[in-house]
Amino acid sequence: MGSLFGIRAVMLMLLLLFLTIACDAASRKKHVRVTNELGGGLTLKVHCKSADNDIGLQVLPPNAFFEFSFSSGIFAITDFYCSFQWPGGFKWYDIYEDGKDYLECDKCWWAVRTTEYGPQPCRLNLSNGKYEICKPWNPK
Ligand SMILES: *[C@@H]1O[C@H](CO)[C@@H](O)[C@H](O)[C@H]1NC(C)=O
Q1: Where is the signal peptide (predicted)?
Q2: Which residue of 110, 123, 127, 132 sits with most ligand 1 atoms within 8 Å of its CB, as the best mutation to test the pocket?
């Protein structure tokens, strides 16, 4: 009888351990940073929002950045949408969506930089430290 109780206690502990690991794996801290690398002395204005969180308008002089963090996972689905404005341009980009980004990055660092296609959001490649994963803006 005593040993049966012992087995039950061990199984309960294993279950709790499993649940702890599962919950941790299902919720990850995400860090978003946006740097102004437009060049040409241009100021970038960025405004990011989720359904229940407004990061507020950020005015970025050349080479300045801002950042924010949040927890994301199956218990807290999070999508952040940002507008980007600079002299002569206004665009939207979904800077973080669980559906496309959850497995892509925990350190989701972006630079808005002028590429051969004009200004674009480019994500940091953690393997080589370059902002080279460039994406198209949202369609209008
Ligand atoms: C990131 O950098 C590594 C090393 O240079 C490279 O092999 C890889 O293709 C890059 N990933 C992307 C998505 O560009």
Answers
A1: 1-25
A2: 127
Domain-embedded: residue 13? no
Number of domains in the chain: 1
Cβ neighbours of residue 4 closer than 8 Å, sequence gap 6 or more:
none
- CATH number of the domain encompassing residue 81: 2.60.40.2890
Contact 131, 113 (CB under 8 A): yes
pTM: 0.81
Residue 116 within a domain: yes
Identify whether 128 is part of a domain. yes
Q: How far is the CA of 125 from the centre of ligand 1 (A)?
A: 6
Per-residue pLDDT tens digits for 40-95: 999 999 999 999 899 999 999 999 999 999 888 766 678 999 999 999 999 999 99
* 135 in contact with ligand 1, CB cutoff 6 A: no
Ligand 1 centroid to residue 128 C-alpha, Å: 7
Q: Which segments of the chain does DSSP mark as H helices, in order?
A: 2-25, 98-101
Domain containing 87 equals 29-134
